[in-house]
Batch of 4 targets.
Target 1
Amino acid sequence: MEVYIKKAGYTPNQKSIEQIEFSMHPGTIIGLIGGNGAGKSTTIQSMLGVIPYFEGTITIPSYGYVPERPLLYEHFTLREHLQFLIDEYNDKTLWDKANQLLTLFQIDQRLDDLPIYFSKGMQQKVMLVLAFLIDRPLYILDEPFMGLDPRAMRELLVLIDERKQQGASFLLCTHQLEMAEIICDHYILLHEGNIQAKGTLAELQQMVGQPISLLDIFYELQGRLQ
Amino acid sequence: MFTKRLYRSYQFNFKLIKSVTDWTVLLYLIVPSTIIGFFLYRDIARNFQVLELQPIPLLLLLFVLSFFLVKPSLRLYIYDADLLFFKQQGRKIHQIKLWGYSYSFLLYNCVLVILLLLASPFIVFPFWEVLFALNIISVLHICIQYRYQNWFTKWPLLLIVHALIIFMLILPLWGLSILLVVVHLRLLNIVLSNRYWTIEVRWEYEAFYSWMKRIYQFSLEMRYYMPSKTKPPLILLAKRKVLSTHRIDNLVYKTMLRKLSYLKSPIQLIAISIGLLFVLPLWAKVVVLIFSSIGLNVALSSIVNEIRQAPFFQLMSVHENEWFQAKKRIKYRFFTPIGVVMMLLFFII
């Protein structure tokens, strides 16, 4: 899985990100971190192929995606959302798996309701169920912990770990650096559309010259630029 | 602050109407319909024999009408962001709510008085008693809304309230006045308690965008900018039923079933075409058939294309061919029965 973004943006002559290059290996979790407007979402959109102006090469397999803001179909119930996805694979056993995930995230009682009227956390759970329903080699998670209750957060961490053990790769975009420090193997720090630093926690610590937390590393590196 | 908010609300609606009304709409639609409406009403009112109903039929008529003339919710001109200074500026919030309350009922009564005056040339009824009774029902209605959110779920309670108050029209006016004051005090107590803030903000949001919703539903392009819905529908049609084994077909059918504005335009077109088949000469019927089939084709295509634009499909991959095949099947399913009916009508008439 290779990602090389020479440049990408939303308007013809204005690049939002450039020279973003990294590779992903099976069973690893990469944390994509950076301040607001650093280019995290643009990087993800480039990988998904939904950015208007893009130059580079992206080689990724089919993926499960959790967007920053829930993308729900206004006129579909939760059951119909799941059915729509399951119909693509024509595999009836997927319903058993869906029921497990629904129970895990405690939304199994809301199957016949319209998710657009759910709370923010519940909508996020719907997105997680849809993303994890199919076993994929890659998962792209954009702020997956946003709005989740502590129990759901823990269930998600267990789920990520299970899939990781099965060989799946993750690209995790988050502002919760304490959480990223626990689960990620590699980090990519973005700043103003460029890669500021990348590597494991140990490599980043070496870069700043102190054995400090990811949050402190982020603070230290950002401080150097200002 | 209340007047500023009121001004902002009117300004929003004014700009909205201005954006969709150009001089052609004004000249060919609004001005003629106002003038025709005025003269039509005047002529009918002049020639109409005033109805003098017996008390019981009159009360029954008022009972039915009361469901249409009731004030469904309250607009208090409070916003979500008011919670930011809710504690510090409690007095201001209190004042805004009081002004909003008074203004809402003032406006409601103005509309009610106009409607009752317009009805007065046609039927004899006790004007002030009816006005007071409708006000009492409205206040009680809002009280029930506060408590149960959706009065539709408590319809027996609502039927009793409407029936009781309408039959109270036999009371003297002072009796109704006392009752009105009592129910207003009860409602004011609920309003000023601030315990139903979320509901009040939702009502404000719905009222603020009500004209926008009404106007934009006529235009497919503008529907994209419609404000988001705040409450789920009462009935969700075909909740557990699969309407087609093909997932896109199922999606389109369910969307059309749940978003009635999608169904409306093809049905309108078919109804108009059938009507024209009855009155037009043979050559014109052929033209109608051709144009109605083209129109129906365009309407169905634009509905499917609009559904395709939903952000949900950034998440779910649907192959281009899947859309194409679905469109073909849907058109076939719609066109076959409609085409047969139209052709039968064409030959029979």
Target 2
Amino acid sequence: MRGEGGIDVGDVLRVRGVRVVRAGRAILDGIDLHLAAGERLGLAGPNGSGKTTLLKVLALLLSPTEGEREVFGIPVGRTVPTELRRRMAVVFQDPPLLTGTVLANVYLPLRIRGLGRKKAREGAYAWLERFGLEVFAGRNARFLSGGERARLALARALALRPEMLFLDEPFAAIDATSRAPFKATLREILRDQGTSLLLISHDYRDLEDLTERTVVLVRGRVLAAGPTATLRREHPLVRELFP
Amino acid sequence: MDLVWSGLREAVRILLARDPEIVAIFGLSLRIAVWALGISLLIGLPLGVLLGVVHFRGRGVLLSIFNAGMGLPPTVVGLWVALFLWRNGPLGDLHLIYTPAAIVIAEVILTTPILVALVAAAAAGAKERLHEFFLSLGTTPATYLYLLLREIRLPLLAAVIAGFGRVISEVGAAMIVGGNIRGETRTLTTAIVLEVSKGAFDRALAISFLLLALSFAVTAFLTHLQHRVRED
């Protein structure tokens, strides 16, 4: 659906000609990308291809050196309205945890987003339960294993009920046997909430399981883009990257 | 060893007898410590957070100054404060020389750099680790600050313990700007110096035990708080 100025009014994200230069080196160079409401987009590429930088630009955590950004149909410059960030959630690679209990890690972000004490507490418990972490609620988060930390980071992000969710390698610390049920839970929640997703993963199976479309970056440029299910089959260079 | 035992006995006697002079010295030392630490915190906490979190021109120089200030010699600070507060000095009209307020001023100058440097280091570390996460939550400047202070509460308590150690043990500056006047500016540390100079080691030891007890009690309380925070 096209609106005024050729903008797809159904897009939650749209960037044009995004370029990020650091220390004289172009980390991203001329990226055009869009994401429709409820769409699940994969972002793939070798190390150093600019995936995380692009995620930060899209999640309004980093201003591009050049280029335009529109988030939820609103053009965004260097000053980012807090309200826009509050419609999103990010799970970072090696997610930082707050000091204190596992419960506090979900409760406090909910309080920051404006929920009352009671609702935030109930919401935090419910999301911990959903990810099998309720038994750890009162424990200090620093004692969690890598896999538990990853689950907590995802529970924390989803508890915020974002319209747009960014995940940067969220399964890296989760063992192979736990991944399938974890991904199934995530898929179900995204579908139920109609959340748009941008997922970075080095594992093409994760992208196949969770995304409809994938963009492959190499050295800060888009190498290929297309439906996740067929992209690898149809694009020899993508097949080379993900044998 | 006899001297130590007699000091201990004297300390117990003083405590039981509630020697009014020693009780007054004890109270004054505690009041000066609380005031000096409180004012240092009021200055040091916001300044430390600012230096730790906000990047501006001259930040590095300021951090170096505060880091160097952690090792300020008390007698030098005492001398400079005395020069300023002396009757003919720039602040002589305030008539603060040889008052508890003068001791508080000197101790604030000695303690604030410790708090600023430790808080700045903790805040910078927390920002480096959590800045993007805090932004992603949609924090306002106030909620960002709240989360940051919450994250540094443990090192903040450590800074308070270090600051308290400085104010309660300080003697050089207190002697110079307070004058060790009986009933007015005599603190536990300056009283010990006086008793030793008189050769009254048993009384000096008794006061030292009181000072140790006070220092230990406050530090133990702050450490207990630190453990509780860590377990939260």
Target 3
Amino acid sequence: MPKFEECLQRLESIVKEMEKGELPLEQSLKLFEEGMGLTNTCRKELEEAEGKVELLLKQNGQLRAEAFGESSGN
Amino acid sequence: MSDSQFSFEFNAAVPERKIYGVRELVGAVRGQLEKSFPDLWVEGEISNCRPAESGHVYLTLKDGDAQLRVVMYRSQSRLLRFKPQNGLAVLVRGRITLYEARGEMQLVAEHMEPLGAGALQLAFEQLKQKLAAEGLFDSARKKPLPALPRRIGVVTSPRGAVIRDILNVLRRRHNTLSVLIYPAQVQGDSAAAEVAEGVRFFNEQAAGEEFSVDVIVLARGGGSLEDLAAFNDESLARTVAASRLPTISAIGHETDFTICDFVADLRAPTPSAAAELVIGSRQEIEESLEALRDRLRRAMQYKLLYQRQQLGALAKNRAFARMEDAIALRQQRIDDLSFRLESQLRARLSAAQRKLELAASHLYRQDVRRRLVMRQKDLEARVEALTSTLQKAMMRRRARLEQAAAQLAVLSPVSILARGYSLIFDASGHLVKDAAQLHPGDEIRARLARGEVEAQVRATHSEAAPPGVAHSAGDTNSSGGVAETTRKAGKRKPGN
């Protein structure tokens, strides 16, 4: 999870650095490639979530998660 | 007689003399008082309030000039939801008794509640002030919501409408966020402890995989101040404040405020709003990611454009311009040569043609058919030989031309620079080929394959030109001696 935020932060700093336009071409290209890689990683992370809804239940003093039926109501 | 009169009267007024001991009297009054006022309500303003070490609370109720001593024993005072304070108007229920040791009447209070505001409200305000004073509500303490929450932990009743509201919002927004519900009573005596346990549970699981969540939502539907009391619990408030995971309180309706709302990192006006908040941050992230991608692309495009311009500008730069001139000049010379080559060829051909015509007219004039035929053959052979000689000559020249062009390319200053050499120009822009050309302090400019350097000469060390470099290839033979003699000369003409 913090990995995503780190990715995003790195991406932001890359974009800022690139926008200054002071880097030599070769380094700009390197950063550009890294930045595009980071956006892809972030996108993948965004798409990966599953959308599961679970309810914790105590059983023999142990908690376990069980799918939560929204219609079951109890 | 008057004496007897008196004594009679006296006797009549006090038929028998009853003398009490103090203890007896006080005890008797106490008994009377307790019988007469076993359970009553009295209102007044607190003064002289002294909570004792024992946990009993002593205070005086005032009403104008009248005062009433009140004691509330520990067993009762610990049930109070507010702290009795001087100046507070209260309604007290209790019984009247007499404190025999001092002979003072006092009220033993069973229950006390603030007048005007309800006790809960007062307790709420007092706890709020206390925690605020400790800094638990400081905005500096507030943790930001995670940029990309994958799973949220909801501490709530799994039976209520609240969890369904939250899940509805998530589904309506087509969200892929996962939800882990920690079931807890949200009303009643155990509610505060259960909710606090949920907050602690998620914090403990944060490092693991199975039950880790990125944000905790405390949710409960609306209700009266009494219904929401669990969320005004001091111990729960401290647990929420201590949470390392970001917390969102989503308790009651928009108008309901609880202590939890103040200590949580974010207050959602309703449980549904809490869901919106969590998704909102996610969508913001998705949008900002796209924006970053666009900016990255644009920055790169701009960089490329800029570099192209730079390259153009560089080509126009003095040093390079001069080299380009030199190259162009040579190119022109090559073109020139090749033109001349062709025109010579053409001239020779036309000369041959003229000879041929001349010969033909001679022949024609001699008018000897046989001879003519023979001559004609001979002529053709000669023309052929001549043409092939010319062609060979032309090919040789072509080859030389190509070789010259290749040499030129190798000698091109650009390719030399690319191999790591640099060109040094003196202050007037002349190419420096000999250290003797320069003197300490002179400004020089070095042209590298990429970029230019400006420098100042510190020292010069003249050196004899090695054979074959200082002189053209033609006079290598004599160069040895010349190099010797020029070593000490020091003032050789620049440019060799």
Target 4
Amino acid sequence: MDVVDQLGAVREGKLSRRAFTKALLAAGVATATVPLGARQARATGDQATYFTWGGYDIPDIFQPYQAKNGELPNFSVFGASEEALTKMRGGFVVDVAHPCNSGMPRWVQTGLFHPIDTGRVEGFGDIIPSLVDLPGNAADGGNVWMVPFDWGQTSVTYRTDLFELEGEESWDMLWDKRYANKLGSLGSGGDAWWCGAIKAGVNFDDLDTDDAFTKISAVMREQRPLIRTYTDDTTTLQQALASGEMVAAMTWNDSATLLKAEGVPVKFAAPKEGALTWVCGLMMHKDAPNPDRAYDIISSLVSVESGKFLIDDYGYGHSNAKSFDEIPDERLAELGLSRNPDDILSAGHFQRPMSQDWETRMNETFEQIKAGF
Amino acid sequence: MADTSLSQAEARSEAPRPKTSWFSAVLYKSEALRGYLLMSPTMLILTIGIIIPFFILVAMSLWTRDGFGFDTTLTLSNYARTQSEPIFNALLQRSFWISGVATVATILVCYPMAYYVAFHVHRNKMMWIILMTLPFWTSYLLRVFAWKVILGYEGVINSGFMAIGWIEAPLEFLLYSQTAVIITLAHAWAAFAILPMYVSLEKIDKSLLEAATDLGDGPVARFFRITLPLSMPGVIAASFLIFIPTTGDYITPALLGGPDGAMIGNFIQLQFGPVNNWPMGATLSIVLMLWIAAIALVFLFLTRKAQEKIA
């Protein structure tokens, strides 16, 4: 049936009754079958949901999961871990979530999580023990609350062509008045406040003192007029650095690595005061609707394939010792990583768990400073 | 509803069912009951969706935060805090300023459009109206992102001006500023302003305009004496429709506002998010509601007075 002919027939008012019925039939069949495809796509069953930071919702780190279950898991993305915790406390149920070591004990305290049976995580034996052995991570029966996945640093990514370095790389770069309104910062206190503590010279042992709050508030207030925008969205920072809108910004490893891969002249600074270091991992919700597939997500993320991608493309450390065998030494040095995470983590200032009251007070203070008070 | 239950009662009249017929008799007699029944689906949704949450909000605003949970002893301390700490009032003022400017800008831009369609378009009016509501065919978030692309450092405006040679370096105040928030809000809510103003302009009796001309009014005097006062209901409706939702807007300042463009909506979100102080968030929501109600009342009162004066 020639479509153009039919249209012409309609225009001339000569469409035969038979052709008209046929067209109606075709339209009916088309309408009735449209949802069929969608339904079939879902027919492989419910995938597990992975609640994670932006940037981890990519197929590259889910190859083993995809091979086993046919599809990617469902993703839900957050920008800051406090936001994620609040959302889950409000009743949002996922299978696997992605907190970091400083938040983990508080996440456990909420009672929303289930210890992870290490025997069911494929390749758990290859995981670097010092990453598992974190304060508050041990659960009953030799199980753990959080299976470590990635580790890295929060530091300054700067444009080597636009930022004129005076002396050594340092946190002072983000307080440099020459570049007012050309500096960027992560918006979450979970990173920014700790970096402020390093800048203010506050020892992490004393973070909980009033004196520390006064000192850190002072440096954060000093920095605020210089900041173009605070954001939890790393893409915003990367784009701003790429365009020259910002010349330096507080980022994680991935921003620098991704920008370098794009050919943007940037460097991930090694500040003389030390960078902020952290370990993030995977926790399982106690009401996880798909516990079996939750273990598939965890196994997939700690697999060597995922680790290779995470190290090479994102510049993060991975928890699986074997992942590092895939990466040549020179590449590791270029990325500022090491086969032994302790070299990097203890060289910087390692984040640590704080009390809920401290978190609330810190966030409240920092948000007020960001708003200009 | 009355009709259907009546016919049901009739259909079952062989089997005696006193209850049904009693009910339909009441229904038949009482107009009020029929009215309430007709309203009941809406009332149900209103109760579940607005009234109950509102009371929860009020109750929560009287609690205080206690670690992960709440201390449910009733206290006004949150309200006291909104007065004792300057940040809350400053953010409220900034929100009213931004959305006030956005409202005025929207009305000023949209009034001529509504006027043109009401008086000078005679064919395909429907198409014109649909065209004016086109921005509403995409999601709000997409419109905000579109403005980010337009106003950005390497955005349409900056690269265009630089290509023409008007500016040397990109204008930085375009993005991450109150200006950006105002421009975006004014564009995003334009359709809400055009439609009510169009309706009230369309309703104006053209013979009044002819009479004014006959009696010697020029086009400008005629506009201010006839057209504008008669279209005021549309302008007032449009102002409310824009001012009220934009004051509490959250996503536009979050994406385009930068540090100085944050509004009260962002701070409320923070209370429910990272700051983890839900009672404070509830308090701020209620304070915002009260302020908007007060401003709306004052505005309504002033326009009434002005209209009386003109009349």
